[in-house]
Amino acid sequence: MNQSNEALIKKHVYFNQRFFARWARVYDYEKYILFPIRNKAASLLNLPANSRILDVATGTGAQAYSLAKRDYDVIGIDLSQEMLEQAKKKLAKGLKLKFIHGDATKLPFKDNTFDACSISLALHDMPYEIRFLVLKEMMRVTKSDGKILIVDYLEPHKNYIARLTCMVASLFETPMWKNFIDRGLLSHLNISGLKPEMYATSLNVSQIVICPNKKS
């Protein structure tokens, strides 16, 4: 990794420790608004029971919880200890679910460990270069022909509800959000070499993409 990327990662870690630590408790209330999106994404993954899934940038664990409810074996990982404190409140008997602290640009797992990796409503919070480092790491730890699940904002040009949503989101989202929206999720995937096998929208405000992890 070059020095510029290392400096960017350090800056991103610092931002997470400042911004998300402050808003961790507030973020957990989004589960009441976004649970249909999380549930739809989890249902579309359609893997066998007990499949191992890593939920990257898990935040307060809402997507990881939705996946675990479908009898998957799920680990959620996040940079923010404060977010993870909220996430751990979702641990429940009978769920194969745990949360760990870690950096998504340097995932602490061997190659080909998971049947799938997911990242939900988090790529837009990352600097442009960091997004590709994270996607690369997700691809590395996912088995060949495993699945990469990505959920994020629908771009405003797609429909008027998405346009209104983005207008509201611009008032509270992180500084990295506009760059993500302007470039679009699919352009990020194309640069990363990920080709969607399934594309869906939810509530006309988010997009759900599932890509096979094709390794050369």
Commentary on this structure:
The protein has eight helices and seven strands, in the order ααβαβαββαβαααββ. With 216 residues, it is of the alpha/beta class. It has a single domain (3-212), classed as Vaccinia Virus protein VP39 (Rossmann fold, 3-Layer(aba) Sandwich), CATH 3.40.50.150. Strands 3-2-1-4-5-7-6 form a seven-stranded mixed beta sheet. Helix 1 (3-27) crosses helix 4 and helix 5 (128-141) packs across helix 8 (185-192). The two termini are 21 Å apart. GO terms for molecular function: methyltransferase activity. It holds the Pfam family Methyltransf_25.
SSE layout:
Layout: H1 3-27, H2 31-45, E1 52-56, H3 62-68, E2 73-78, H4 81-87, E3 97-101, E4 114-120, H5 128-141, E5 142-153, H6 160-169, H7 177-183, H8 185-192, E6 198-202, E7 206-212
Parallel strand pairs: 1-2, 1-4, 2-3, 4-5
Antiparallel strand pairs: 5-7, 6-7
Outline of this structure?
It holds the Pfam family Methyltransf_25. Residues 53-146 form the Methyltransferase domain. The chain has 216 residues and is an alpha/beta fold.
Note the main attributes of this structure:
8 helices; alpha/beta; 216 residues; globular; single chain; Methyltransferase domain-containing protein; Rossmann fold
Count of domains: 1
Tell me the β content. Answer: 15-25%
Tell me, what is the CATH class? Alpha Beta
Percent in helix: 40-55%
Number of helical segments?
8
List how many beta strands DSSP finds: 7
At CATH level 3, the topology is: Rossmann fold
Q: In oligomeric terms, what are we looking at? A: single chain
In order across it, which strands form the biggest sheet? Answer: 3-2-1-4-5-7-6
